[in-house]
Amino acid sequence: MRQKFKIYWCGFDLAGREERFKKLQKESESADFWDNPQHAQKVMKSLSRLRESIESWHKLQGRLNDSLELADLSDDSLFDELEAETKFIEGEVERREFRAMLSGEFDKGDAILAIHAGAGGTDSQDWAQMLQRMYLRWMEKQNYETEIIDTTAGEEAGVKSVTISVGGRYAYGYLRSEKGVHRLVRISPFDANSRRHTSFAMVEVLPQVDDDGDIQINPNDIKIDTFKAGGAGGQSVQKNDTAVRITHLPTGIVASCQNERSQAQNREMAIKVLRARLLEIKEREKAEKIDELRGEYTKAEWGSQIRSYVLHPYKMVKDHRTNHEVGNAEGVLDGDLDGLIGAYLRANVGRENSS
């Protein structure tokens, strides 16, 4: 237990948190601190989170030290008490390991997941729809609320793109492990000669954020188009222009929504998607600068897939970031993602949130 505690103590970088707490506390004591109320509120929120985290770790360390002192007494009458305390400490460390994996700024909140078919025509569009089904199955198992807010059907089968709103505790924290290019190898059902094809799809995962001042959208910077919403094959076509497409002129980012009943609701959801994409750009630029300073920066390219799903000539799913492999490919495609997600989160404890 002592050894395990030491490992987690280092992994949670308590010394770094204490140093950051001191810096923020000093900043909060400056005379002009409240001249910028929005920034001040963010600092105070960070101080509160850091104080709670630091104090709770010191209390747990105190309980461990007390238990070790009692164990050194070699008093058999204390055995039951020590056993109960050890179980408590082990359970608490495990809970903190979980929190450490999901301790990012947006991890506890809702998410927006978007899937885009890559090059490969019908096969890639079918692959995008297979991924949509996989994630919806996983979300159902997590009891998350889901809503398909925008979709573009494939020309023959599948989807060209789909955007899903995901609501539930830690939705973004879990799903951020899925960002990137997903590769499928299989015998194509669309090839008359039954040849093996490789298909690609891009998965975006964005945190749903409110307009808290961090991401400000100037009305003069957006172009809003409305059009008639409709389902696949022209079904459920609306008579009125309820669907909304918003283009952010400075960046060229496009966000659309056609699932809500009114134009106002679709506009609100499209703005939420746009805000999430702008935040993602901001966070990515910050991470790239940090990685450049660390000497670890590698530009992400379309071909650098994070995971491969092989259905022929053998069956296996492999995450290339963690080397975690699963032999039951059908189970993964049916929504059994916990092993892959958990391996990624464990491999990145402390790294993604250290900035």
SSE blueprint and pairings:
Blueprint: H1 2-11, H2 14-28, H3 37-72, H4 79-101, E1 111-117, H5 122-141, E2 145-153, E3 159-167, H6 171-175, E4 180-187, E5 196-207, E6 222-227, E7 243-248, E8 253-257, H7 263-294, E9 305-310, E10 316-319, E11 325-326, H8 329-333, H9 338-347
Parallel strand pairs: 4-9
Antiparallel strand pairs: 1-3, 1-5, 2-3, 4-5, 6-7, 7-8, 9-10, 10-11
Helix pairs in contact: 2-3, 3-4
Summary of the model, kept short:
By secondary structure, this protein is α+β, with helices and mostly antiparallel strands. The protein has helices at residues 2-11, 14-28, 37-72, 79-101, 122-141, 171-175, 263-294, 329-333, 338-347, and strands at 111-117, 145-153, 159-167, 180-187, 196-207, 222-227, 243-248, 253-257, 305-310, 316-319, 325-326. It has 3 domains: 2-101, Up-down Bundle (Methane Monooxygenase Hydroxylase, Chain G, domain 1), CATH 1.20.58; 111-208 and 306-347, Alpha-Beta Plaits (2-Layer Sandwich); 219-293, Double Stranded RNA Binding Domain (2-Layer Sandwich).
Describe, in plain words, how this protein is organized in 3D:
With 355 residues, the chain is of the alpha+beta class. It has 3 domains: 2-101, Release factor (Methane Monooxygenase Hydroxylase, Chain G, domain 1, Up-down Bundle); 111-208 and 306-347, Alpha-Beta Plaits (2-Layer Sandwich), CATH 3.30.70.1660; 219-293, Double Stranded RNA Binding Domain, CATH 3.30.160. Helices cover 44% and strands 21% of the residues. The radius of gyration is 24 Å and the shape is flat.
